[in-house]
Amino acid sequence: MLVVSPWRSAARTDTGKVRARNEDAFLDCPQDGLWVVADGMGGYQGGDVASQLIVASLADLPVEQSFDERLTAIRQCLHWLNRRLSQELTIVAERPENIIGSTVVVLLVEGSRGACIWAGDSRCYLWRAQRLYQLSKDHSLQQQLIDEHQMTPAEARVHPAAHALTRAVGAAEHLTLDVLEFEVHPGDAYLLCSDGLYNGISGDALGNALSLAAPHIAVERLFDGALRGSARDNLTAVVIRQ
Which domains does the chain have, with CATH numbers? Predict the structure, then answer.
């Protein structure tokens, strides 16, 4: 029997105005309650390989399981990919500086349960009751400097290494994932996006787009705003709502 998903979603990715290739990748599977954005580590060989491998591997996971089993499988898959990327593919590259890595942010929903799993600075936002919430927290030097009270947000933003990642799949032998579980409310809307998208648009503009009823229109609104700017990085967004 065909089961119709209560979720509607839309996704888009764009190379932007400066980069020669797109190292972002996404997964948009409303029928499975699963969405992913992965951003290959810019400036490294094989960033697009890493992001596409993450998305393809997560897409292949079984869906005929409980929510908790699926959440465990996602985490195990990302840890396995981290070992593969940090060892096998880096060895193939022959030079240690050729790290093959990617950020990842995953949204899994089933009924009233939701979970966000991430490593790196790709983000998950929630739009609820006309307010925007950032569910994920960046694994970046900028965020670390703020958390450790070494700098104000304004100072950290202009630090020369602000965008350096402190976690990513494939970047180190050991991967630590953050997982946030939450209750899904009727009318919720979610946004998964790479840093190229959210760095090119204001928080108000993010909220305004997510307030729109149709996910595909929300995505177009986000890209219209981001591509009016410098769009120096690849841009990816997935908008999800009931």
Answer: 8-136+175-241 (3.60.40.10)
